[in-house]
Amino acid sequence: MNKDFGCPTLLKGGTVVDGSDSPGWKADVLLAGERIASIAAPGRTPPDLLAGLRSQGPVHEIDCSGLIVAPGFIDVHTHDDAAAIEKADMLPKISQGVTTVIVGNCGISLAPVVTDSPLAPLSLLGRHQFRHATMRAYADAVNAARPAVNVAALLGHTALRMRHMAALDRAADADERAAMAADMQEAMDAGALGLSSGVFYEEAYAADVEELVAVASVAARNGGVYATHVRDELAGILPALQEAALTARQSGLPLVISHHKCAGPANWGRTRETLPLIEELARGQEISMDVYPYTAGSTVLREDLVDGIIDILITGSQAHPEMGGRYLADIAAEWGLSQQDAALRLKPANACYFQMREDDVQRVMTHPLSMIGSDGLPHDERPHPRLWGAFPRVLASYWREKGLLRLEEAVHKMTGLSAARFRIGERGLLKVGYMADVVVFDPLRVKDGATFERPREFSEGIEHVWVNGVSSYTAEGRATGARAGRFVRRAADKA
Q: Mean pLDDT over residues 436-458, rounded?
């Protein structure tokens, strides 16, 4: 084990971009124990503080000249629920500079479902960790696994439906709503951030606003948030956004619109309509959204999303695993079938859908209400490259190459804004007394390496990562072997 694990560390002479969207400045940053002990002009770290630390042992010094020192990135949209336990090195995330992941998105969470045979869309989380009947049990499992990154959690509405409803083709009745609300209260008591929903998926599509509000209002009373994969991201996106806002407003919750997009060729360009609507709604309630820096999405293979126009890349098929990594159009031609019939033969399967246009992605990416989330699927056989590359891609493409974001703005969307919107305390900013989740990166070299052809490639330019004050990743040696993450409860207050 590296002798510098947990050792006080002085990051000297880097440019501090603190996550607040304020201009960066040159400073020395001192990490001591789990926290940031000092941020001072170069060479001006309080000498008595350094002397006190040196009296207890060595203080490691790292020259950060020419590098950016920033808060560890917060991935606000993940499906890392099981990966944090089963693949606790969390290499796809720590190698990007991510130090905290938010799990339980899109209505999909491990808790409180207990089963050996999870159905879609819960199966996106893998098949072997559905053994946590409560959020507290899940939190305990995360802490026992000691992942390399911190884990904060939403409770999934679809998971609640699958636990409490025998038939999913209708709205929940009063008893079922009460049972879901009780599970929501348990989750909030255990430190959950709030509720997520995925009414886009068939398993939750029949849920009405009354059902959603019955659960979401419990999260509201406990200072939570509501994140939703809206009902329709295609032609019906405007009423879907209004429904999400109504649910949040009636519940008294801040709303996070998951991976906002205008999907499908007939919908391209409609961010010119959706973003003004979101702005109008945000004048009366707290609304934000997350976005990933790609024109392809990834989820379960659904024949209703197969239009014969967009490219669809099969990322894994239980029925025909040999077709992973191939395009649906090519498979259909080889089998002599329509693309929809080929999709039916491949199911259950997952796929990447090239369903967005770059100008729409750019409008969402640069909007002041947007945060960055990867939405990667760690259990896919050939995952979307966003699992390994989303955060460096934002920096390389949307800041350095296209100039669409200021550096401070890009970092803010990955750190301070994310922590504030999701009520994660003492993280997301470089601030004395805050937890020492820190990333150091090279602004000239930072770049994603993962592609659709080679989805598990390391990014470049991520030089050092600390999680809770522990050196966890270096560009020179990759993962250090340290696993200092933990389950992170929401902040006690709503600020």
A: 97
Contact 102, 395 (CB under 8 A): no
Distance from chain centroid for Cα 477: 25
Residues 340 and 342: their CA atoms lie apart, in Å, by 5
Whole-number pLDDT of residue 3: 42
pLDDT tens-digit readout, 393-427: 999 999 999 999 999 999 999 999 999 999 999 99
Whether the pLDDT of residue 2 is over 90: the answer is no
Q: What is the mean pLDDT of residues 24-34?
A: 98
DSSP H/E element including 363? helix 358-366
Question: How far apart, in Å, are the Cα atoms of 95 and each of 248, 391, 475?
Answer: 35, 10, 8
Task: For 329-346, write each residue's pLDDT tens digit.
Answer: 999 999 999 999 999 999
At 190, give phi and psi (nearest 5°): -85, -5
Q: Which residues of 318-332 are buried (b: 16+ CB within 10 A; e: fewer)?
A: eebeebbebbbeebb
Q: Which DSSP state fits 443?
A: T
pLDDT tens, position by position, 118-134: 999 999 999 999 999 99
Return phi, psi of residue 192, to 5°.
Answer: -60, 155
Q: What is the DSSP string of 455-493?
A: TTPPPBSEEEEEETTEEEEETTTEE-S-----B-PPPSS
For 464, which DSSP code?
E
Give the pLDDT of residue 493. Answer: 42
Q: Which residues pair with 351 in a beta bridge?
A: 299, 314
| Residue 481 structure tokens | 């072997």
Q: In sequence order, what are the residues at sequence separation of 6 or more whose Cβ sits closer than 8 angstroms to the Cβ of residue 454?
A: none
- Residues 200, 30: Cα–Cα separation, whole Å: 46
Question: Would you state the structure tokens that stand for residue 5, as one six-digit string?
Answer: 């694990």
Nearest CA among 111, 178, 171 for reference residue 141: 111
Instruction: Encode 235-298 in three state secondary structure.
Output: CCHHHHHHHHHHHHHHHCCCEEECCCCCCCHHHCCCHHHHHHHHHHHHCCCCEEEEECCCCCEE
Write down how long the chain is: 495
Contact 149, 125 (CB under 8 A): no
Residue type, 190: A
